[in-house]
Design a protein that fits this description.
The protein is α/β, with parallel strands linked by helices. The protein has 8 helices and 15 strands. Helix 3 runs parallel beside helix 4 and helix 4 runs parallel beside helix 6. The chain is globular, with a radius of gyration of 18 Å.
């Protein structure tokens, strides 16, 4: 199994875009990319905009090579309703657009489905379902909280197993800070796990200390109780320049248990560039 992170926050954009290829099927999870409209009261820097455009081109390239695309929820860093032609002749597995979803995402889902009527695409609502592609099994969780509660809606997690390797993709769990988010991860027992880590850059504001501590404990449970070998922490977490310091307990526990904890950029073998977290620095360094 080939697992290739395409666009992530550790690569300079808001995204969890991931390409997975087995001997049976090529799958793209969450083909979307965006930027924070404001950070440090500043709009995206030109360098960030350039990176986003580069990553969108890369996403489209890998979607074109995929048989299946999965959209775990309807935030724009996980899907793009404005270039639906990339899904032509694909099988598209979507988070249910009406069940366990908040109002904002329900509206976005309806618009996405309206746009998809323009292309030839096979759509299935995947919440809680299983699929087989040759010897490759794909399982999708029931919806879990996007973050600490239902305010931002729900997401689905994805498990892929080809008999030789296995992947768990958490989507936006911001932790995981809830036992329900962790449950599917423990049940699936994947070797490679991609996790949207805790939202430490908003700790004490939109992300509580209690949620942070729950995230630490749940990540340690994941390391201890599964056969994970590669634990990839990214997305909300890598919007924080000090994310490694804040997650030191997880790094140390992973080391003790023989688990490699790293960002998506590290896993992909590319330079880690936290452009959003460095936005103020970019404006100072590269003055127009």
């Amino acid at each position: 199994m080939e697992v290739k992170p395409i666009a992530f926050d550790s690569m300079g954009v808001r995204s969890m875009a991931t390409f997975v290829k087995t001997s049976d099927v090529a799958i793209f999870i969450d083909p979307g990319v965006s930027l924070a409209p404001k950070r440090y009261r500043l709009p995206p820097h030109e360098i960030e905009i350039t990176r986003m455009n580069e990553k969108w081109s890369e996403i489209k390239k890998y979607v074109s090579e995929s048989d299946v695309a999965i959209v775990t929820h309807y935030h724009y860093d996980h899907h793009d309703p404005n270039e639906v032609e990339i899904f032509e002749s694909k099988k598209l597995l979507l988070k249910h657009p009406k069940d366990r979803i908040n109002r904002s995402q329900m509206g976005r889902a309806a618009y996405f489905l309206e746009q998809l009527e323009k292309v030839n695409v096979e759509i299935d609502y995947c919440d809680g379902k299983s699929y087989s592609f040759g010897n490759t099994a794909v399982e999708v969780s029931n919806p879990v909280f996007h973050g600490a509660d239902s305010r931002l809606g729900y997401v689905v997690e994805v498990y892929i197993d080809d008999g030789k390797g296995s992947l768990l993709f958490s989507s936006d769990v911001e932790g995981p800070n809830h036992e329900e988010q962790l449950k599917f991860m423990l049940e699936k027992n994947a070797e490679t796990v991609i996790i949207d880590g805790p939202m430490t850059y908003m700790l004490g504001y939109r992300f509580s200390q209690k949620s942070f501590q729950s995230s630490i404990e749940n990540l340690k449970k994941l390391i201890e109780k599964t056969d994970v070998k590669n634990l990839i922490l990214d997305h909300h977490l890598t919007r924080d320049l000090k994310w490694r310091d804040k997650m030191s307990e997880v790094f140390e526990f992973g080391k003790q248990m023989g688990v490699k904890v790293q960002s998506a950029a590290e896993f992909a073998g590319v330079e880690e560039e936290l452009l959003e977290a460095r936005r103020a620095e970019l404006y100072k360094k590269y003055k127009n």
